[in-house]
Amino acid sequence: MSQNPFDALGGAGGFDMNALLQQAQQMQEQLASAQQRLTETTVDGTVSGGAVTVTVNGVGEVVNVDIKAGEFDGSDADDLSDLGDMIVAAYRDAKAQADALAGEALGPLAGGGAPGGMPGQLGF
């Protein structure tokens, strides 16, 4: 008895394994393309009227930090601490924008959620 186990899934008229594999390959290609576009896209997070700007790409990697000249003299620990806090805040702003872009770009390819199925987690 050498019956094809896939016959129960619709046989020749219902289940097409080649079509399923082709669809999976297309989805992989679309996902890779979307990830590449995210890597090439940048967004800025800015605080204190542009005193600090952090640029991240669509997958959340920092690509630039810009500190406006004359905003910080670094003469005391409080000034440097404030600068650190502002960099973190600008990064969080930029990262939130990058996460939103990734959700838009990858959501349809990941079943409506972020990759890994966890909201807010890119899985990269």
TrEMBL record:
Q: Does the keyword Coiled coil apply?
A: yes
Which SUPFAM superfamilies does the annotation name? YbaB-like
Pfam families xrefs: YbaB_DNA_bd
Q: Cross-referenced Gene3D superfamilies, in alphabetical order?
A: Nucleoid-associated protein YbaB-like domain (3.30.1310.10)
Q: Which residues form a coiled coil?
A: 17-44
What's this protein's family per the entry? Answer: Belongs to the YbaB/EbfC family.
Complexes and interactors: Homodimer.
**Role noted for this protein:** Binds to DNA and alters its conformation. May be involved in regulation of gene expression, nucleoid organization and DNA protection.
Name of the featured protein: Nucleoid-associated protein FB382_003612
Can you name the source organism? Nocardioides ginsengisegetis
